[in-house]
């Protein structure tokens, strides 16, 4: 009985050990199969291509001239003589201020001048007569001095009256408020019947000269220094006056029809931002550009015959802001590269100036499934695209064949 029980227990132990051994073997087999699994990634082979380089500088458009229209005399506006938003010309009358009090002052000053001129007509012959009489001792010296003093006083009165009359004439002219420059005028801040003063700070309206326009762009002092060196070396072309021609990109991404001229107008570095403001003069004959509009000044840098362009989705930035990308090496292992970028190109590509070389295979898809050091299977993106296109073309051909119908 005991021998049978011992044999039964021994059989159970052996069965359990065998089961555990099989389980461990199966687990080991699964781990090996997981370890042997190789991920597939899509790569592009780096090559050099011709690329027209350019430097883009964002900025805001401002008026070539901004001239506030302000009154020079105090009075009540009688008329507004322009259409808001229209083009006005230099010297054009914009407002008529009530001229009546200034006309009265002018008339009074004119009468005073005429009175002084009449007094001078009387004083001149008296002084001349007294000089003749004094020469023969017919009158006293005091009488002669009095006559000459009266003459000089009348002459001085005429000069003062002429100045007063000229001042009155100017003020009377100021009742006709004219445009100081040619341009587009804004809405009027005052209506007829409003009282305006000579010392007010609020403009009646503002005139903007839209052709040409200014585009003020800000660049870091380092970039401006590099830009100056490139112009000085002839790498960037300039006109006869040493100014660079630039293309203008509008807010919607289209290219403006007229080229601008870049002028190095910056005279100092902003200590807060470390930037310098540069100015671009842009023709605006169609009045398409408006003050405050966001634009880009694009400076052509010529054609780089051996540029490296990579898809933007292949590049990520680490916590320090460094641009990195995954590359498949000759042993089909994943390695990480730190890249130097020089801006974006067309078709959502980065311009790479460092970190990659011709022939490198950069991962463009599947990077989220692999880590540095992993062995992968690399599929060329161009070959995959060609295969997909061929499959789609064959399917379309089969669907349109008579047998398919």
From TrEMBL:
InterPro entries: MdtA-like_b-barrel (IPR058626), MdtA-like_BSH (IPR058625), MdtA-like_C (IPR058627), MdtA-like_HH (IPR058624), RND_pump_MFP (IPR006143). Residues 1-25 form the signal peptide. It is found in: Cell envelope. Residues 212-302 form the Multidrug resistance protein MdtA-like beta-barrel domain. It comes from the Bacteria. Residues 69-207 form the Multidrug resistance protein MdtA-like barrel-sandwich hybrid domain. Residues 106-175 form the Multidrug resistance protein MdtA-like alpha-helical hairpin domain. Keywords: Signal. Residues 307-368 form the Multidrug resistance protein MdtA-like C-terminal permuted SH3 domain. Its main location: other. Belongs to the membrane fusion protein (MFP) (TC 8.A.1) family. This is Membrane fusion protein (Multidrug efflux system)/multidrug efflux system membrane fusion protein.
């Amino acid at each position: 009985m005991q021998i049978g029980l011992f044999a039964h227990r021994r059989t159970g132990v052996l069965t359990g050990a065998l089961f555990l051994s099989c389980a461990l073997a199966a687990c080991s087999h699964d781990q090996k199969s997981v370890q042997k699994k190789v991920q597939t990634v899509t790569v592009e082979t780096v090559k050099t291509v011709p690329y027209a380089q350019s430097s883009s500088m964002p900025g805001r458009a401002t008026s070539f001239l901004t001239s506030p229209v302000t009154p020079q005399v105090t009075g009540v506006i009688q008329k507004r003589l322009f259409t808001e938003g229209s083009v006005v010309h230099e010297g054009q009358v914009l407002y008529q201020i009530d001229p009546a009090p200034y006309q009265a002052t002018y008339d009074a000053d004119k009468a005073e001048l005429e009175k002084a001129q009449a007094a001078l007509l009387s004083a001149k012959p008296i002084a001349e007569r007294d000089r003749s009489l004094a020469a023969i001792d017919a009158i006293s010296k005091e009488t002669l001095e009095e006559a000459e003093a009266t003459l000089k006083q009348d002459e001085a009165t005429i000069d003062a009256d002429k100045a007063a009359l000229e001042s009155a004439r100017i003020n009377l002219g100021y009742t006709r408020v004219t445009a100081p420059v040619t341009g587009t005028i804004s809405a009027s801040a005052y209506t007829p019947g409003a009282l305006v003063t000579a010392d007010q700070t609020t403009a009646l309206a503002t005139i903007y000269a839209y052709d040409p326009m200014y585009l003020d762009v800000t660049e870091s002092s380092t970039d401006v220094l590099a830009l100056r060196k490139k112009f000085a070396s002839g790498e960037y072309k300039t006109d006869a006056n040493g100014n660079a021609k630039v293309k203008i990109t509008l807010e919607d991404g289209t290219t403006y029809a007229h080229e601008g001229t870049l002028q190095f107008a910056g005279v100092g570095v902003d200590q807060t931002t470390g930037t310098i403001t540069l100015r671009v003069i842009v023709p605006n004959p169609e009045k398409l550009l408006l003050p405050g509009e966001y634009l880009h000044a694009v400076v052509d840098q010529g054609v780089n015959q051996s540029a490296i362009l990579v898809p933007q989705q292949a590049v990520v930035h680490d916590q320090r802001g460094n641009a990195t990308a995954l590359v498949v090496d000759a042993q089909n292992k994943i390695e990480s590269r730190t890249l130097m970028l020089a801006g974006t190109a067309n078709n959502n590509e980065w311009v790479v100036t460092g970190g990659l070389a011709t022939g490198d295979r950069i991962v463009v898809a599947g990077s989220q499934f692999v880590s540095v050091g992993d062995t992968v299977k690399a599929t060329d993106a161009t070959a995959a695209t060609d295969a997909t296109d061929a499959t789609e073309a064959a399917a379309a051909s089969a669907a349109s064949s008579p047998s398919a119908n």
